[in-house]
């Protein structure tokens, strides 16, 4: 009788263990903070993407844990199933080979061009108007179809935003950087380069971000469906608009 009881407890513990594991999702984040979407404080992770993802996770009965890597490693781990999901992902045909997206987006994001303050150039919205300068962006980022397919540009890549700021702010170089303006302004202040870069108008790109789940998970489609269903309700809620307003993001 005692043996049966021990065996029963072992089996129950095993089931519970599997359930906890299934209900916990590993989120991949870049190793560099990315305000206003995600950044780390003494209280943990904050930002619009984090708050939306946490709200949806609670609604679907999941717990999120966050793992940080260089961005290209995040994408590699997403493909390999080392991380289960990402919470801020532009939708492209190439990326869709590795992930299942939610049916609808949850956050908009803009990409802007910026230059060292000494470089006196204007941008008319067409990349051809500034094509004589080399362009620098973060490896693995998507900056819109126009930039993606601009084969006439001389493009270079760096690992993250701090490296990008240091590169563009160099007073001896004439080049153009591209990225998320709030994140770049954050690092310019943090690294002491505020006033040494300026942003060009208009913005190069504005696009929709989705949550996305690794195809390496057998239940990726079910997860995407569950989060999609909750997202429909969530985007009609007062809470969603409070998050957008809190972080200065347009609906």
TrEMBL record:
InterPro entries: Solute-binding_3/MltF_N. Residues 1-22 form the signal peptide. Keywords: Signal. Transmembrane segments: none annotated. It holds the Pfam family SBP_bac_3. Residues 24-251 form the Solute-binding protein family 3/N-terminal domain. Belongs to the bacterial solute-binding protein 3 family. This is Transporter substrate-binding domain-containing protein.
């Amino acid at each position: 009788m005692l043996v049966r009881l021990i065996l029963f407890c072992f089996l129950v513990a095993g089931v519970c263990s599997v359930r906890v594991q299934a209900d916990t999702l590993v989120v991949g984040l870049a190793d560099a903070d990315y305000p206003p979407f995600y950044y780390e404080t003494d209280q943990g992770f904050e930002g619009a993407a984090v708050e939306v993802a946490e709200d949806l996770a609670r609604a679907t009965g999941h717990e999120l844990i966050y793992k940080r890597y260089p961005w290209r490693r995040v994408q590699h781990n997403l493909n390999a199933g080392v991380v289960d999901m990402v919470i801020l992902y532009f939708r492209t045909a190439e990326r869709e080979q590795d992930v299942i997206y939610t049916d609808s987006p949850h956050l908009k994001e803009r990409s802007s061009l910026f230059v060292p303050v000494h470089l006196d150039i204007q941008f008319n919205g067409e990349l051809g108007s500034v094509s004589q300068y080399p362009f620098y962006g973060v490896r693995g980022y998507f900056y819109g179809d126009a930039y993606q397919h601009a084969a006439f540009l001389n493009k270079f890549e760096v690992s993250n935003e701090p490296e990008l700021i240091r590169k563009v702010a160099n007073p001896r170089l004439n080049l153009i950087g591209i990225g998320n303006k709030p994140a770049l302004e954050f690092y310019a202040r943090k690294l002491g380069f505020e006033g040494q870069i300026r942003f060009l108008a208009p913005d190069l790109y504005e696009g929709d971000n989705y949550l996305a789940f690794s195809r390496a998970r057998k239940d990726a489609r079910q997860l995407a469906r569950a989060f999609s269903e909750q997202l429909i309700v969530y985007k009609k809620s007062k809470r969603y608009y409070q998050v957008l307003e809190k972080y200065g993001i347009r609906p």
